């Protein structure tokens, strides 16, 4: 597995989210300042609409969540679980900032990308 450069750190709004294209799908990236960076699927599993990057960040039950802007389900930024409906979840991605670049861990080996 390798790390993929998504954008410059300066392109991320503070305490908000943006959508980015990663491995043929939209992901939501959240910059919580000293709280860290988080990345998860941008598709709201309750509706199938790509909107989670526009959701509100909140602290609930001791965890950090994004509230879907459509039906307000809360998805954990740490593990993707949904508070309101255990059958719903989103995939979470490893993300880091290195030398001013935002990197997301790819599920594919570089050898797989050559096919």
UniProtKB/TrEMBL annotation:
Every Rieske domain range: 3-104
PROSITE patterns with a match to the protein in the record: NIRD (PS51300), RIESKE (PS51296)
Keyword Hydrolase: no
GO molecular function: 2 iron, 2 sulfur cluster binding; metal ion binding; nitrite reductase (NADH) activity
Pfam assignment, any one: Rieske_2
Xref: SUPFAM superfamilies: ISP domain
Keyword Iron carried by entry: yes
Listed GO biological process terms: nitrate assimilation
EC number(s) given by UniProt: 1.7.1.15
Record's keyword terms, sorted: 2Fe-2S, Iron, Iron-sulfur, Metal-binding, Nitrate assimilation, Oxidoreductase
PANTHER family listed in its UniProt record: NITRITE REDUCTASE (NADH) SMALL SUBUNIT (PTHR40562:SF1), PTHR40562
Protein name, per record: NAD(P)H-dependent nitrite reductase, small subunit
């Amino acid at each position: 597995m390798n790390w993929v450069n998504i954008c410059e750190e300066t392109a991320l709004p503070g305490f908000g989210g943006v959508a980015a294209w990663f491995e043929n799908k939209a992901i939501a990236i959240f910059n919580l300042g000293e709280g860290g960076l988080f990345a998860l699927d941008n598709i709201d599993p309750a509706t199938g609409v790509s909107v989670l990057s526009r959701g509100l960040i909140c602290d609930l039950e001791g965890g950090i969540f994004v509230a879907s802007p459509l039906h307000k389900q809360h998805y954990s930024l740490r593990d993707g679980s949904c508070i309101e409906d255990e059958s719903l979840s989103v995939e979470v991605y490893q993300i880091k900032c290195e030398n001013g670049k935002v990197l997301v861990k790819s599920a594919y080996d570089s050898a797989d990308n050559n096919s």
